[in-house]
Amino acid sequence: QTEKNESKPLKPSVVSRKPAVYVHVDRDATIQAARLKLPILAEEQQIMETIAENQIVIIAGETGSGKTTQVPQFLYEAGYAQNKLIGITEPRRVAAISMSKRVAEEMNLSEREVSYLIRFEGNVTEDTKIKFMTDGVLLKEIESDFLLNRYSVVILDEAHERSVYTDILIGLLSRIVPLRHKKGNPLKLIVMSATLRVEDFTGNAKLFKIPPPVLKVEARQYPVTIHFQKHTVEDYVKEAYRKTVKIHSKLPEGGVLIFVTGQQEVNYLVRKLRKAFPYKESLNSRKTEPTQSKATTTAEDKDDDEFDMKRAIKNVKRSKKKLASQVILPKINLDSYKLPSEDTDADLLENDDCRLEESDLENDDDDLTMETEQRTKQPLWVLPLYSLLSSEKQRRVFAPPPEGCRLCVVSTNVAETSLTIPNIKYVVDSGRQKTRLYDKVTGVSAFVVTFTSKASADQRAGRAGRVSAGHCYRLYSSAVFNDEFEPFAVPDIQKKPVDDLMLQMKCMGIDKVINFPFPSPPDFTQLEVAEKRLKMLGALEDCKTKESGGQVISKVTPLGHAISAFPVSPRFGKMLALSHQQNLLPYTVCMVAALSVQEVLLEVSLNDENDANRSQSSKWSSKRRTWAGSGNYQLLGDPMVLLRAVGAAEFAGSQGKLEQFCEENGLRMKAISEIRKLRVQLTNEINLNIPDVNLSVDPKMEPPTDLQAKFLRQILLSGMGDQVARKIPDDELKDKEDKRKFKHAYQCSEMEDPVLAHSASVLKKKQPDWVVYQEIYQLENGDTKKMFMRGITAIEPEWLLTYAPKLCNIKAVKEDPSPRYNAKDGKVYCYVEASFGRSGWELPLTEI
Ligand code: ADP
Ligand code: MG
C-alpha cells in the first residue's frame, strides 16, 4: 500500500505520513463538486496528519466550513471505520439526525452504515461505521463501556455550545484516551468548535497536560453590514415581520434568515409571511422542481405541531366575541377533570418551548394592512426551522426555492451554528433566545427569553456573508448590544444547579466529582451543597472502600439510582420514586409540575395600598381555602391548592372557559399551560423509562382520597426534609416584646431567624405545629425585614424519623416497657427517642 502512495507525485514529507489504508468512497459528481468548494477540503491533508500524530486534536472553524459533514468522511477514507466505529456527538438532536442523513447521501452509503442514535430513537445497525449521536447518548454508553472500546475515533462536535454533557465528555475522554493508548488500543479524540475561543480546552492543565494542537479552518466570509435599530423593540416578532416585508419588497435577491426564540414564534411568522406573499403553484411552471410541488402544499399546512391548549383558548376568544357579556361559566366539576392523553408526541421533550404567545391570540388581519402600498407581488418561499420539526421538513431549507421565489427561513437558534442554510444574504436578528433559568434556591427552572451573547449575535450575522456581501438587521440598538449583551454565553455547567449533575456522575462511578477535570468547573461550594443535599435525600451515602484507600467517599444508593431515572431535580425525583404505590404517581407528577412553575397563583403584594387589589386578592384567597377542602386535604395545604387548580383549569379548558376561569380564580394562565406541558413531558418520560408504569392507561385523575392525601404529604416531606419548620411554642416566648414579635411565627431547622406563613397560604389561619415549605423569601418594608414561607404543607413530627432520617439524631432505642406490646406475637417492641435538626427539637417517642 505504501508503494502505491509513493508512486503519486506528492511531497516526500507528506508521502511518509499518508495512512497505510485508503478506503474508497464512490461519490456522485455533483456532490463531489460541492464538497470541493468547502474550505475544509483544502485542509484535509493537514488535518489527517495531525490526527495521525496526536491523540487529541481541536478543530476550530467557521460554521459552514464543512467540519461536521467532512471530517467523518476523511476519517472513513483513512480507514478509521474498518474495525471500529467513528462516533460523532452533537448537543442537538436535530443535528444528529440531519447530519447522519447528509453524510450517508454524500458518501453513497446506506443509513445502515451511516446512522444516528438519539434518546428514544435511532437507526444504528451492526453494519454502522459512522455513528452520529447526541452527547447524552455517548455519556450513557460510557456507563456500560467505560473505555469506549467500540470506537476508534470520537468527535465532539459543537463544543463551543458548552452543553453540560459535552463538557463532561471532554473531561472523561481526557482520561479515557491515555488509558486506551496505554492498552495499545488507541482512541482518537477530535473536538470541533465553531468559534476560535478554545482556551477553556487548551489552557486547562488539569484537563489536558499537554495542550492539544488547534487546527483552524478559514472559511470564505464576505463582509456583512450590520444595521442596528434606533430603539430596541419589545415586540421583536412583529418587528421581524415588518423588516422582512421591507427586505423582500425593496432589496435585491438573496435569501432571508430570521432568528426568533421558539417554535411558536416561528410558526406565527411563517403563517403571516405566507399570507402576505403567497406562493401560488399555478403562477409557476409545475416542472421547476419535482420535490417542490409536494412541499408547496405544505406551504398551506396547518401547524400540526401546535399545542392543544391554545386552540381551547382561541375558542374562548371567539365565543367571547360572539356572546359578549352573556357567557356563563358552568359550575366547575372538580371530580371530572382528566389528565390529557392526546398529545403524547415527543414534541415536548426538547427545549423548544411551546408557550403561548400573546401575539398568537391576536386577529391576524390587523397588521396585514401595514405597508400594503409598497409591497411587492413576488412570492416568498417561507420555511420554518426548529429542532422539533420533522427531519424531512427540516431538509427543505437546503433545496433551492421554486423559480421566481425568494427563500425565507424563520428559525430558532438551530440555524446559528448547527445547520448552514445556503444562499442567505439577509439576516434579521431578534437578538433574543430562549434559555432555561434555574432558581438557585429551589432548583426550579423556567424558560425565559433573554438577549443572546455578543458572540451569538456575530455568529448569526455571519450567516449573511457566506455567498456574497450581506446585511444583518438587528432588532435592537447598538447601545443595548454594547451594554447588555454578555461577550460570551456562560457554559451551561455554571448556570445549572449541580444536584443532578453530581448524582449522574456518581451514578457513573465518578466518586470525586470535585476533582473532575471540567473544562470550566462549576462553583466549588455549589458542589459541596449538592453533595450534602443528596445525602440528606438518601441518594448518596458515605462509605469506606478498598479502592478509596480507606478514605470516606459518598456513593450512590439504590434509591439514588431510582431517583436519577427521573428527568427532574433529585428532590422531585425522590418524590416521584416514592410514589410508585397507591396510584400516587399521577398526583405527584402533577404536583412536581405545578411546583416547578413560578407564580401559578396570582397574589397581591402585602404592601399593596390599592383597596380594589386587596379585595380581589382576598376573594382569591378565600376561594383557595375552599379548594383546600377540609381534614387531610386542608393539611396538605398549598400544594393541594395547586393540584386542584390544575385539575379544575383542565376541566375549564376542555369547556373552552379557561381564560375566565383563570381570571375568576386568580391563576396565571401561562403558568397553567406550562404546568400542562411539564405534566405531559414527565408522563411520557416515566412511561418510557420506568418499567411497569403506564400513566396514560388511566388518564382520569380523581381528587385524591384522604389516605392518598396523607401519603402525598409524606412524599412532599421526603423530598424537602431540610425545609421543615416548627411553630414556636408560646411558652418559649419570654416577654411581651417576644410575644408581639413572634406570635404565630415558625422556626426553621436550618436557620435562626423566625419565619411567618405567607398571607396567601391556605394554612395561614390554621397554623399547624409542624410544616414543610417549598421556599422562603424575604420581604423588606422600610426598616423591617420579614421572612415568609411559601408552599406550606402540614406534617406530623412522627414522620420525620421515616422520611427525613438523615436529619434526626437518635438518642436512644428502648424496649417498650408496656406488656401490652411485648405480649403481641411474642415480639419485642421498641421506641426511639430522637431529636430533629440542628436546633435539636425533641421528637415524640416513635415506635419501631
Ligand atoms: P460546519 O459543521 O463546519 O458548520 P457543515 O459540515 O455542517 O459545516 O456544512 C457544510 C456544507 O454542507 C454547508 O454549506 C451546508 O449548507 C451543506 N449541507 C449540510 N447539510 C446539507 C443537506 N442536508 N443538504 C444540502 N447541503 C447541506
Ligand atoms: Mg457543524
TrEMBL record:
What are the Helicase ATP-binding domain coordinates in residue numbering? 48-214
Record's keyword annotation contains Transferase: no
The UniProt keywords, alphabetically, are: ATP-binding, Helicase, Hydrolase, Nucleotide-binding
- Residues forming the Helicase C-terminal domain are 308-509
Which Gene Ontology CC terms are recorded? nucleolus
This entry's Enzyme Commission designation comes to: 3.6.4.13
Give the main EC class: hydrolase
GO MF entries = ATP binding; hydrolase activity; RNA binding; RNA helicase activity
Keyword ATP-binding listed? The answer is yes
Outline the segment boundaries, as ranges, of region: Disordered.
281-303
One example of a Gene Ontology biological process annotation: maturation of SSU-rRNA from tricistronic rRNA transcript (SSU-rRNA, 5.8S rRNA, LSU-rRNA)
Family from the record: Belongs to the DEAD box helicase family. DEAH subfamily.
Name of the featured protein: RNA helicase
Q: What is the species listed in this Swiss-Prot or TrEMBL entry? A: Hermetia illucens (Black soldier fly)
Q: Which residues of the full protein are shown?
A: 249 to 1096 of 1200
